[in-house]
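look at this stuff:

>
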Amino acid sequence: MRRVLEWALSDGVSAARRLAAGVPAGYLEELIGELGLSGEVLRAVFGLSRATWSRRRRRGVLSPREAELTYRIARLYAMAVLAFGEEKAEARAWMRRSHPELGGLSPLSAARLEPAAREAEAVLARALAGVGAA
């Protein structure tokens, strides 16, 4: 498992320590690769222009907002992989598909704000418990 997914599944205290210490830009690069995100999606979800992303990569550390968003998306994706029985293609598709329990947002879009990200996690938790469909 990649570093970003290990971090996303770590306990909250460890995750918070990584956030406080600074999150390497490489974590976002791993997440982009894992999810197969295009530059357009990266800009839409993270609000990063190509120039800003290039600066982040050169600097080597994400801003606190970018780091938290990376964590939320990575955590949601890692949970989806578990919910879909390690079927990463299914988990990736779920992340991009609009969902009625998220007001028509995709989980990837919902992850932009904490309350909606929590709701997306709740959808997965219900699916894992056999109480609903992801």
